[in-house]
Amino acid sequence: xxxxxxxxxxxxxxxxxxxxxITVFTIGVMAVLLMKTAAVKSNALSIKQTxxxxxxxxxxxxxxxxxYTDTALAVTSGPQTIPNDGSLAWPFDITYGDAYSIxxxxxxxxxxxxxxxxxxxxxxxxxxxxxxxxxxxxxxAADL
Length: 144
What we know:
- By secondary structure, this protein is α+β, with helices and mostly antiparallel strands.
- It has one domain (about 15-140).
- It contains two helices and four strands; from the N terminus they run ααββββ.
- It has helices spanning about 5-10, 15-65, and strands spanning about 80, 100-110, 115-125, 130-140.
- It has a four-stranded antiparallel β-sheet, with helices on one face.
- The relative contact order is 0.15.
């Protein structure tokens, strides 16, 4: 019977195998961390978009509550900005964060007499990028 040498009886992993395993594990962990970072940023942007939508909807609801003959529903010569500190009288006493900007424009309706087309725009700043384009447009008819 042959005697086994010490080299043949050693068990375990070589240094190269351990280094390769650590490298593969590190790459996997880094990929998971990158995905988590992207998910957090995406979630933050979604929150900002939701708040912008709520601000636009609140402003639209305020415009629908105003009597048609009120001066607040007068045709504007261009976009009007609503300050974010609540300093204006109702319906424009909305308070919101510094990251948002609400503006509106009122024009005469073209399809029907005694109507106004109200365009509400909300812009916001997120991650150093200015986001524009959230717009709500509504048709306000004269009160019956």
